[in-house]
Specification:
By secondary structure, the protein is an alpha+beta fold. Helix content is 33%, strand content 25%. The protein has a single domain, classed as RutC-like (60s Ribosomal Protein L30, Chain: A), CATH 3.30.1330.40.
Amino acid sequence: MKYLIFILCLILTINLSAKDKKVILTDKSPKPIGPYSQAIKAGSTIYLSGQIALDTATGKIAEGGASKEAEIILNNIKYILEVANCTFENIVKTTIYLTDIKDFNPVNKVYATYFTADFPARETIQVAGLPMGAHIEISVIAVK
């Protein structure tokens, strides 16, 4: 019986979240390069799509390597969070994709300037490639 109640609660939660779904979009960050949203707010959770360091003016990847790209990405994440009335303090989970794990320490130094306490959960993964030749991509989940 308690499993049935749990399943019903889970279904209701998913159903309520789908009804509360809201697209988050800002002109301060690059527009999506495919059929996805910059972020989606479902209930009190904000899911930000993976961000690469696109220059909003040119639509190209910013130059300067992974640490420079990380700085641009984290600023773009900040702008998206602002639209959802959130800050980096609301982030509970980050995922970092690197094309070269040797960039971990330089990227981590930039990351540490944006997250200073109560750090979110995180994983960093080396991947074979990223869209548009990016060196890094970051996605986050925030809770309001």
